[in-house]
Amino acid sequence: MKRYDTYKDSGIEWIGGIPSDWKTSRIRYIVDSQKGKNPKEFSFVESSNSMVYLAMDYLRGEPKQIYYIENPSEYTIVDENQILLLWDGSNAGEFIMSKKGILSSTMAILNIKYLHKRFVWYFFKYFERFLKESTIGMGIPHVNGDELKNNYISYPPLPEQTAIASFLDRKTAEIAQLIADKKRLIELYEEEKTVIINQAVTKGIDPNVKMKDSGIEWLEEIPEHWEVKRLKYVVDMKSGSGITSEMIKEEGEYPVYGGNGLRGYFNSFTHDGDFILIGRQGALCGNINYGIGKFWASEHALVCSSKSLFVIKWLGELLRVMNLNQYSVSAAQPGLSVENLKILQIPVPYLSEQFLIVSHIETECARINAKIEKTKKLIELLSEYRTTLISEVVTGKINVI
After folding, report:
1. What is the pLDDT of residues 213-251, one digit of tens each?
2. Whole-model pTM?
3. Of 29, 87, 248, 331, which one has the fewest beta carbons inside 10 Å?
4. CA geometry: angle at 45 spanning 44 and 50, to 5°?
5. How far is the C-alpha of 260 from the C-alpha of 277, rounded, in Å?
6. How many Cα neighbours within 13 Å face the side chain of 93?
């Protein structure tokens, strides 16, 4: 891309040189900011003729929950496509485009004066990383209002602002579509892995093997030479040992596994060996993890100890395919009954075939994972290119007119 004919020093270190006909201004002169109300001041009702999103529930611009608000006109209303600034929290200093809603005190709406709003939006996305570096607060970080107001924006004449905004709208949309396509490709790769694992642990890896009816409710045919056993004859399942959250540290000698995997570390262990761990409680009960070596299993995990010789990863992946969450007992907190799990029937191949199945799964998943990592790298490069393109264009380093 071409550069402008002549440049001048902007006088602003993080902007550098700008085209000779561009100007600079303190942000305070082109932006009015207004924060919303504390969420405790909101008045909720169960039903209403009109729904609004609460801005405090935005996660990178996407509202997570719908509320009905009594007397919404008493609050700061946010329309579509207004520039908001996350004022407080871990993402303080991030700019987002709004959806219709009501503004909370954790955010500020930025009303743009004199300049093209979309140009300012792109400039703020460039400015974002500098603003984040200046957040203050010992506990929850928040935007330094003086740093925002007293900093600078550089800008060209209005017709050029419009042209730049249009260019970036088009290019960022193209990049966003490429990223979306790559993310969808990753989803397809993950689906391919699931199909491969499902096929291997329920049908084997020999496409020409003779099949028979399994007699298992959730499974149709299995290889003719496979056995069918109840889970209680293959493993013994017991809950782990109690441990408080205060006892679990970020670093330590032995890992602590709960129902959803690694929780932290502790200076003692309950198990030593190779085990399958099943999440016992909560919405994600039925999760499958592995405990290898010395570790502490909490009371939220069911530890599977072998009663017969089998390959641990074969059984673990079979249990994952079985979706044990569907057998959870409805209660205040969903949970799995050991007695219910013990009577489940599973297809059991010869031990030698279990090794071959696991080897096949690992080989195929490694192949697909390599594609996933390559695709993730492409997404990262596209995101970096989008960031660089915005910063170069809104500071006049390249001329797109």
Report:
1. 999 988 999 999 999 999 999 999 999 999 998 999 999
2. 0.82
3. 331
4. 100
5. 9
6. 21
